[in-house]
Amino acid sequence: MVYKVIITAPIREEGVKLLEKETELKIFPYPPTEDALMKEISDVDALLVTTNVEKITKRLIDNAQKLKIIARHGVGYENVDVNAATKKGIWVTVTPVLSETVADHAFALILCLSRNVCKANNYMKNKKWVIRDPLIFIGNDVSNKTIGILGLGRIGSCIAERAKGFNMNILYNDIVRKKDLEEKLNLKFTSLEDLLSESDYVVISLPLTQQTIGLIGEKELKSMKRTAFLINIARGAIVDHNALVKALKESWIAGAGIDVFYKEPLPIDDPILELDNVILTPHIASNTVECRKRMAITAAEEILRVLHGEEPKYPVNKIS
Predict the structure, then answer these.
(1) Residues 317, 91: contact at Cβ < 8 Å?
(2) Percentages helix, strand, coil for the chain, rounded to the nearest 5?
(3) End-to-end Cα separation, the chain, in angstroms
(4) Domain 3-96+290-307 - what CATH class?
(5) Contact call for residues 108 and 259 (beta carbons, < 8 A)
(6) pLDDT recorded at residue 295
């Protein structure tokens, strides 16, 4: 039997080669619309969803007569109707092998904001450096500051490990208290309100759920220190975008480092693009050679496990 697999956008060749050995592949050059997928899905055995923008809806799932697994190339699965998949006996899986890489990016944003790295780079490239000024681009030390981590899952834990290396005071908030990590990493569990008001850096590493959509709005941003920075490497919709723009314009907070947005790609006329107290990156926190290789291989291996009649290693649902 030749299995059919669709990949919704290109992935690393290591994952492609694994699947090519046993399956017939169709790889879209960029994320397809629901209608474009609908034309291909009826006799497909596995679907590898590369990004978070494809909409894997109930309509699409109901039309997939042979589908056995929807494998996400990432850890977020809010664009997949998991309930519809579960009802049809279709596994939904993720690739939780990106935590270290995403945590690195969170700290890259923290360091660049704190030390004015991007502003200084632009200053140099615009050929404005004409005198050695020891007071130009004065930044802030990261070490010994307070960091508040919203969501202490795999990624949040890795962020905490890095914060410990900077000798930071680490606060966290999560729906589940992690007492083992509190002792290991010297963390303090606290309320959302106290975390926001006490932290010099607030890092969002939460999944996008009905409970976290719009979690950080005007009230929450106004409760942060005026000298604090907001870092979001999770999902854009967790933060009220209009409130964030207002907070940055009116200096409720010192700045922000944002890798994820309410709409991706971000509209070119979005007002946040005009602000100089924010660093924006185009959803690249997991974009390293090593991480993308791990993700591609993990997603491919999950597909092959299910096609071989085995249970996946990283499911988000349970098939009876």
Answers:
(1) yes
(2) 35, 15, 45
(3) 25
(4) alpha beta
(5) no
(6) 98
Tokens of 34: 């629901």
Provide the mean pLDDT of the chain. Answer: 97
Segment 50-64, tens digit of pLDDT = 999 999 999 999 999
Is 126 a residue whose pLDDT tops 90? yes
Extended beta strands in the chain, E state:
3-7, 23-27, 46-49, 69-72, 91-93, 146-150, 169-173, 187-189, 201-204, 229-232, 255-258, 278-280
Triad 153, 7, 309: Cα angle to 5°: 75
Instruction: Report if pTM > 0.85.
Output: yes
Q: Residues spanned by CATH 3.40.50.720 within the chain?
A: 3-96+290-307, 99-280
- Is the Cα torsion angle 94, 95, 99, 102 positive or negative in sign? negative
259 Cβ contact partners less than 8 Å away, ≥ 6 residues apart? 105, 109, 232, 233, 280, 281, 282, 283, 284, 285
Q: How far is it, in rounded angstroms, from Cα 137 to Cα 299?
A: 44
Those residues with Cβ within 8 angstroms of residue 70's Cβ, 6 or more apart along the chain or in another chain: 46, 47, 49, 56, 61, 80, 85, 90, 91, 92, 93
Q: What is the CATH number of domain 99-280?
A: 3.40.50.720
Model confidence at 222, pLDDT cuts 50, 70, 90, reads very high
**Residue 320 banded pLDDT, cuts 50, 70, 90:** confident
Question: Catalytic residue positions?
Answer: 235, 264, 283
Q: Position of tokens 């960091």? A: 147
**How far is it, in rounded angstroms, from Cα 84 to Cα 68?**
13
Cross-strand bridge partners of residue 255: 229
